[in-house]
Every structure is written in C-alpha cells, then in structure tokens.
C-alpha cells in the first residue's frame, strides 16, 4: 500500500488523472494559478452559432406566426367584409406551404401578410370614419320641414 501523495505500487494510475496535488479546499488536481480558457472548447456559444453536434436534426421552423396571420386575414375578410385582406390570405397560405422548404422566404411572406392585414384594416377604419362624417353632415344639414314633430 502506498501512503498519501505517493504513486501506487504495480503501475496503477488514478483514472481521473489527478497527480496528487491538492488545492486549498482539499480537491486534488486543481491549480488555482493555471491559465484556463475563458470558454469551453466550442467557444462562448458551444458548437458554433447555428450548428448543433453531428447527428442532431435541426429544429423545425415555427409556423405559429404564419397560422395566426392566416387566421387573422380570414377573419378580417369574412367578418369585417374586408376584401383587401384576400391578399394577406394568399401570401400567408403561400408562406405556410413554403415553411418547410424555404423558411427565409416563408418568413418574408408572413411579414408581408401582416403588412397587408394592417394596411387593409387601417383603410377600412379610414373609410368608415369618412362615411360616418359624410353621413353626419348630411343628416345635420337638412333643413326641410318634413321631420318629426315639425310645427
């Protein structure tokens, strides 16, 4: 048997590679003055940005924004009779079909679908405001005596 800090007899070596040194906390093999790299072997982001370890499949693209844009455009077309949103329905449908094959193009089409939805709703609100103002001016400017309760 060997004592503390001595090499064991028979050529046996420590499987963890400790050389018998101890730090101030009693942990063997740690040198507080050694120069260690600031990050692991892959750098600060692991295996490099955008790449995983070999054999791991890439994550599927997230279709939630595409589906929400499609549903919002359909609801705006059907419920609000906003026929300008048909373009948004078409672009988000194309984006949904291309999400697996060309995710960059799908993201661009989804953005355009949201823009079409926003612009069409803004135009519909503007048209509604103009119609209310024209209707209010037309009702307030009539001065004929054929109204209710006329004397």
UniProtKB/TrEMBL annotation:
Q: Give positions of region: Disordered.
A: 1-24
Any transmembrane segments, and where?
66-90, 111-138
Q: Which domain of life is it from?
A: Bacteria
Q: Tell me which UniProt keywords the record has, alphabetically.
A: Membrane, Transmembrane, Transmembrane helix
Keyword Membrane listed? The answer is yes
What's the name of the protein?
DUF4190 domain-containing protein
Q: Which organism is it from?
A: Thermomonospora umbrina
């Amino acid at each position: 048997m060997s004592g503390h800090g001595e090499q064991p007899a028979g050529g046996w070596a420590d499987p963890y590679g400790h050389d018998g040194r101890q730090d101030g906390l009693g942990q063997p093999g740690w040198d507080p003055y050694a120069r260690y790299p600031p990050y692991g072997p892959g750098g600060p982001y692991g295996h490099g940005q955008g790449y995983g370890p070999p054999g791991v499949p890439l994550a599927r693209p997230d279709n939630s924004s595409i589906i929400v844009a499609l549903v919002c455009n359909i609801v705006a077309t059907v419920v609000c009779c906003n026929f300008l949103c048909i373009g948004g329905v078409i672009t988000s449908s194309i984006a949904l079909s291309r999400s697996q094959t060309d995710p960059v193009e799908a993201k661009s089409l989804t953005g355009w679908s949201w823009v079409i939805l926003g612009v069409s709703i803004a135009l519909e609100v503007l048209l509604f405001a103009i119609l209310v103002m024209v209707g209010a001016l037309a009702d307030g400017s009539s001065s004929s005596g054929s109204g209710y309760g006329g004397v």
